[in-house]
Each structure stands twice: as structure tokens, then as C-alpha cells.
Write a structure and sequence with these properties.
- Keywords: Heme, Iron, Membrane, Metal-binding, Monooxygenase, Oxidoreductase, Transmembrane, Transmembrane helix.
- InterPro entries: Cyt_P450, Cyt_P450_CS, Cyt_P450_E_grp-I, Cyt_P450_sf, Cytochrome_P450_Monooxygen.
- It comes from Setaria italica (Foxtail millet).
- This protein has a domain of about 110 residues: Uridine Diphospho-n-acetylenolpyruvylglucosamine Reductase, domain 2 (2-Layer Sandwich), CATH 3.30.43.20.
- It is about 50% helix and about 10% strand.
- A hairpin with a 2-residue loop joins strand 8 and strand 9.
- Helix 12 packs across helix 13.
- The mean pLDDT is about 90.
- It binds protoporphyrin IX containing FE.
- Protoporphyrin IX containing FE binds next to helix 12 and helix 18.
- The site of protoporphyrin IX containing FE (HEM) has 25 residues, from helix 12 and helix 18.
Length: about 475
């Protein structure tokens, strides 16, 4: 009973040995064989047991819209394993109700477009540093080529970017915090499909002790960064994400009344963890899959390079230049459709709920498998399994039969707060890379996407970079 369908899921996923051709973007049998099998067997929606907990898996866009846009507060984020919570922080992703409203109001201004355009300068500088290193490497070879594990380079780069944009001058400490968080993530992945025996988190096992030590290290480092901000005048907050968040906590006058939207030290620490997790891994994966697709479709790579040349020549791109890259935006959106880093969205019901035709009892988990829905031919057309960024040429809301078909950043009040940030970051990096190099997949590349909390290339992304003339 405790195991529910978990053993079945493990078994079906183990049989995922299948390696795909690089032109084959239908990796669903690798990452979600259980959902595909049960949908065929039982129709949709269907119910299954995750450990002792019931979950409903829905595939219907209208039901997904009703659930994700619901503002009654009756669809909550799903219960999260303590390891995952320690990793992500109980920040914006997990808080609920009036706490969520308060957190979102404090954090929103930090992600305003004018602020993001300022951060673009930092993003481009970080990308140029990475590209310079690769350039040095390539220019040592007569043919101007170098083979690199680009997924690893992107992980380093997006850590660097989020450390700089979140923590400004304290970015070195930020990177230390990141390393502790990264190790915590490894523990979280290890325990993901194991059934948690109640109380087992408090036992002083070797793994728990390692986890507690890392959590302490992460917290101490973040406290150090935050405390370094409140200078003698108390106004040295800075233009980075942390500074803008602290700024929003300053009391303001509204209608003659003092209003304070505030977060406690603990809450700010949790938000910092959330930015880190949300900000580096997902973005590095978006970059990884974008380079993968542009390697498979070199004509698109060339098209983006031409657009870049038109908009900013060989100069360092600015936030304004980057905002004008329409072809690039479409390619990123198509990458998010086919290889979106967040594969599923989850909710649970706080009370018995009727959604469309179905009734969902209290406490049931709801799975919205965006990766599967993004390939629904009824909505995306017969070419749903193929790469075709032109489907976005009239904007994201006109790309499919319904305006909310792209679920990569989710929709509704809990949709991704960082989506403009991540699009700017991805454009900054791709622009700098495309200005210097052409790229192809290395013969060592093996196409085997896996779902490890996020969608990742199982064997990394080895790529051959060639310096442009
Ligand atoms: C390609 C990159 C990204 C993807 C695919 C992505 C995807 C998502 C998705 C699907 C959600 C909704 C989750 C749910 O409803 O359960 C979400 C929420 C969120 N994301 Fe992102 N994200 C990305 C980048 C970022 C970045 C760069 C940041 C911050 C620096 C960020 C911060 C957040 C936060 C704080 C939330 C919670 C919002 C709320 O509940 O109010 N994300 N993201």
C-alpha cells in the first residue's frame, strides 16, 4: 500500500534504454512511459497512486486552464518532500494564500522589464567571459575548432549570471551557497522515488547528517550576504535581485498610512534559495536544448546569426537589441515547447472540487503533463512532434488552437515570475555565442533525454565549436 504504483513506474522507466535519432523529438516513452501506458489503458483523465497518495493525471487543455487559473486558493501546490523543500526553499514557489500574495508583491518589482534590461548588461558580460575562454581554447587549434561539454559550460555560466544578478558584488559568496545547494539537489534526486517512512528525516543517518551540514552552510552563507547589505545608512541595497527585494521591504506612505510589505530574514533566505534553484538549472537546460536544436537544424542557426548581425552587428548586444530579436524569441519558444525543462505541473485539492465535468475529492494530487500536452496534434497541428519555430510567428497565444497552449512557464497567477528574466538571459548567451562560433553536435552526442526533476540530456551535450571567420 505504501508503495502505490511507484515500483511500476520505476520498472517502466528502467526500460527506457531506447536511444533516439537526433531528429526524433518524441522522447515521451523514455520519460513518461507510465502516463502513456495508463492513458491508453484507462482513457483520460486517470487515477494512480504515488506512494499512498492518489493522483489524477489530466491531459485536457480546458481542464488545465481551469485549474491553473483558479484564484479561489483551493488548488494548492502539491506536498513536497522535505529534501526537495530544503533544496528549493519555502519561497514563492511553495508559499500559499496571503503569504503568497505578500511574497509575490515584494518580488514582482525585481522582475520588471526595465530592471531586466539593466541586468542584460551583466548577463552579456558573463557570457562574453565564457565565450572568451572557449575562443582561447579553439584558437590553439589550427582548424579553429574545439569540442566542449556545453551543458556543463552553461551550468557554470548560469550560476555565474544568477550569482551576479541576484547578489551583485557578493557573487563569490553566492557561488559558495550554490555549491551547497547543488549537493542538496543530488540528495533530493536520490530520494525522489523512495517512499518516505514518517520520521525518517530526523534519524541521524549518514545521508541526513550530510544534508543537515549542507543546509547549515547554505543558510549561513545567505545570512552573511544579506547582512552585508544593510550599511550604516541602511540604504545600500543595490540594483540586483536581492537589493530590489530588500528595497521593496522598506515602509512606504500610501494615502497618509504607513504600508509595509515585508519579508522576514528567514523568508528572504528562502527566496534566495528559490532564485538559485529556479534561476540556474532551468535556464542552463533551456540553453542546452536550444544549442542542441540549432545544431540539428543549421539553417536555423544561420538565420539567427543573420538576424543578430542585422540588429547589433558585431557589437556587444544591449538589452534593447536583444528585445528586438524576433526569430530568436521564436526558436526559444519552440525549444520550450519541445524540450521545456519543467516537464509536469502539479497541484492538489484543498477541498472537494468540480472542474468541468470531473469531480476531484479533497487531498487528491493533480498532474498536468505539459510535455505530453505540447505534442497534442489536435491543438498544435500534424507537425506537433517536429521542430517548427514559425508556428510562433504571430505570437505565443496564436501558435496553437488555444491561447494558453504553451505551458512551459505555466499559466495563471502562479506562472513563472522569472520568464522575462530567463528569455533575456537566454538571448544574451545565445547572441554572444552565435557572434563568435558556429556549432555542430559532436559524434559523441547520444540523444537520450531524461527527467531528473527537470528534462536533461542523459549523456550531456558534447558540441564542436568552430570559430567564425
Ligand atoms: C527556462 C527557465 C524556466 C522555466 C521553464 C520555468 C518554469 C516555471 C514553471 C512551470 C513555474 C510554475 C510552477 C507551478 O505552477 O507549479 C514556475 C514558477 C516560478 N519560477 Fe520559473 N522557470 C524558469 C526560470 C525561472 C527563473 C530564471 C526564475 C528566477 C530567477 C524563476 C522563478 C520562479 C518562481 C519564483 C516561481 C513561482 C511563482 C509563483 O508561484 O508565484 N523561474 N517556473
Amino acid at each position: 500500500f505504501f508503495k502505490g504504483c511507484n515500483e511500476d513506474i520505476k520498472r517502466m522507466k528502467k526500460a527506457d534504454g531506447l536511444v533516439l535519432d537526433v531528429h526524433d523529438h518524441n522522447y515521451l516513452p523514455r520519460i513518461a512511459p507510465h502516463y502513456l501506458k495508463w492513458r491508453d489503458q484507462y482513457g483520460e483523465p486517470f487515477l494512480y497512486w504515488f506512494g499512498p497518495k492518489p493522483r489524477i493525471c489530466i491531459f485536457d487543455y480546458e481542464l488545465a486552464r481551469l485549474i491553473l487559473s483558479n484564484k479561489s486558493g483551493h488548488f494548492l501546490k502539491i506536498d513536497t518532500q522535505p529534501t526537495v523543500l530544503a533544496l528549493l526553499g519555502k519561497g514563492l514557489v511553495f508559499v500559499e494564500g496571503i503569504d503568497w500574495v505578500r511574497h509575490r508583491r515584494v518580488i514582482n518589482p525585481a522582475f520588471a522589464m526595465d530592471k531586466i534590461k539593466i541586468m542584460a548588461k551583466t548577463m552579456v558580460t558573463c557570457a562574453q567571459n565564457m565565450v572568451k575562454e572557449l575562443e582561447d581554447q579553439a584558437s590553439k587549434n589550427k582548424n579553429g575548432e574545439t569540442q566542449v561539454e556545453l551543458d556543463k559550460q552553461f551550468q557554470k555560466l548560469t550560476t555565474d549570471i544568477i550569482s551576479h544578478t541576484a547578489f551583485g558584488s557578493s557573487y563569490k559568496l553566492g557561488i559558495e551557497a550554490f555549491h551547497a545547494q547543488k549537493e542538496l539537489q543530488e540528495i533530493a534526486v536520490e530520494t525522489l522515488l523512495s517512499v518516505q517512512i514518517p520520521g525518517s528525516n530526523y534519524l541521524p543517518t549518514a545521508s541526513n547528517r550530510r544534508k543537515w551540514k549542507l543546509e547549515r552552510k547554505l543558510r549561513d552563507t545567505l545570512v552573511q550576504i544579506i547582512q552585508s547589505r544593510s550599511g550604516p545608512e541602511g540604504s545600500l541595497y543595490g540594483n540586483d535581485l536581492l537589493g530590489l527585494m530588500l528595497e521593496a521591504c522598506i515602509p512606504t506612505e500610501q494615502g497618509g498610512k504607513q504600508k509595509q510589505l515585508s519579508l522576514s530574514m528567514d523568508e528572504i533566505i528562502h527566496e534566495c534559495k528559490t532564485f538559485f534553484f529556479a534561476g540556474y538549472e532551468t535556464t542552463s537546460l533551456l540553453l542546452t536544448w536550444t544549442v542542441f536544436l540549432l545544431s540539428v537544424y543549421p539553417e536555423w542557426q544561420e538565420r539567427l546569426r543573420k538576424e543578430l548581425l542585422r540588429e547589433c552587428g558585431k557589437e556587444k548586444p544591449s538589452g534593447d537589441n536583444l528585445s528586438k530579436l524576433k526569430e530568436m524569441t521564436r526558436v526559444l519558444l519552440e525549444t520550450l515547447r519541445l524540450y521545456g525543462p519543467a516537464v509536469f505541473t502539479q497541484r492538489k485539492t484543498m477541498t472537494d472540487m468540480a472542474v468541468g465535468e470531473i469531480k476531484i475529492p479533497q487531498g487528491f494530487g493533480i498532474i498536468i503533463p505539459s510535455a505530453i500536452m505540447h505534442r497534442d496534434k489536435k491543438f498544435w497541428g500534424e507537425d506537433a512532434d517536429e521542430f517548427n519555430s514559425l508556428r510562433f510567428q504571430n505570437g505565443v497565444t496564436k501558435a496553437a488552437k488555444v491561447p494558453h497552449a504553451l505551458l512551459a512557464f505555466s499559466i495563471g497567477p502562479r506562472s513563472c515570475i522569472g520568464q522575462n528574466f530567463v528569455m533575456m538571459e537566454a538571448k544574451s548567451v545565445m547572441a554572444v555565442l552565435l557572434q563568435k562560433f558556429s556549432f555542430t553536435l559532436s559524434p559523441d552526442y547520444v540523444h537520450a533525454p531524461v527527467d531528473l526533476l527537470t528534462l536533461q540530456p542523459k549523456f550531456g551535450l558534447p558540441v564542436v565549436l568552430k570559430l567564425l571567420a
